[in-house]
Amino acid sequence: MKRNHPLLAALATTAAFTFAQGAMAQVTPAPQTPAAAAAATVPATAPVRNIVLVHGLYADGSSWEKVIPLLQARGYHVTSVQNPTTSLDADVDAVRRALALQDGPTLLVAHSYAGMVISQAGDDPKVAGLVYIAARAPDAGEDYPALTRRFPAAPASAGLQWSADGYGKLSEQAFVNDFAGDLPKAEAEAYYAVQQPMGKAITMARTTVAAWRHKPTWYAVSTQDRTINPDLERFMAKRMGAFTIEIPASHVSLISHPKDVADLIVQAASGQGSAKVASTGTDKALHAAIAPRDPFADGA
């Protein structure tokens, strides 16, 4: 049964404007690694009709509400998972339940923290490919907070607040200015109102699977991201050998640039770019000497 989200009416006036922003995306080739070179010989994936969208932290499934109608209009069967964001295991289970309901090959799409979720759940045989939207992409067993410390801290992390019972959320200032900084203030505040707290267990979680090592991958870097460092996003995309685009957006490109995001998802669903083309980009920030920070600070 279709669920009408209360934000849809309030945000409808911005949809036409954001839909027209597709031309702003800049395509950036992905990196060349031994794994990527080998993947270049693999045929493109068969087109899929099922798309499962997975939201990140400080959000719920409504964060995809501008992308969903664009995909449905092109004939895709779309499911937006409602993650509990209490633990990585609970979120992976929610995605696996959604995958079980799909009737054939399926594309998994993640925003932010949900990149960890689809990296773990993506080994399901129904999954034909993985799309990361300004998302985490740790390797199996990797310490993600330690990885973030190899790059300058993203400003949003300073606004993470913890309750006495172990749940975290962003302050209103951090959410509006850093997490969703390219949205009109009223729109950002509307999304802040539905922010879902996260369990502290997520900050210590590690994946045991990196499905991106054997599944075709696509990545959208948010060049104005203040929640995950854009150079960290580029590093993760390069390491995966993902077909990569760059969008001049905040962390919430799926809201501010839904057409760019939807176009990348459609490209992935049709198997375009899955050969993981080479890149001439650099990862000079990778070796920067960054002072250690509190691992609980990196919630996105």
Structural account:
By secondary structure, the protein is of the alpha/beta class. Helix content is 32%, strand content 15%. The chain is built from eleven helices and ten strands. The strands form two sheets. A seven-stranded mixed beta sheet has the order 1-10-9-5-4-2-3, sandwiched between helices. A three-stranded antiparallel beta sheet has the order 6-7-8. Helix 4 packs across helix 5. It is globular and about 45 Å long. It starts with 6 loop residues before the first helix and ends in a 31-residue tail after the last helix.
Write out key terms for the chains shown.
Rossmann fold; seven-stranded mixed sheet; 11 helices; 10 strands; 32% helix
Helix and strand topology:
Layout: H1 7-19, E1 26-28, H2 34-39, E2 50-54, H3 67-72, E3 77-81, H4 88-100, E4 106-111, H5 114-121, E5 127-133, H6 144-148, E6 160-162, E7 167-170, H7 172-179, H8 185-193, E8 198-199, E9 217-222, H9 230-240, E10 243-247, H10 253-256, H11 258-269
Parallel strand pairs: 2-3, 2-4, 4-5, 5-9, 9-10
Antiparallel strand pairs: 1-10, 6-7, 7-8
Helix pairs in contact: 4-5
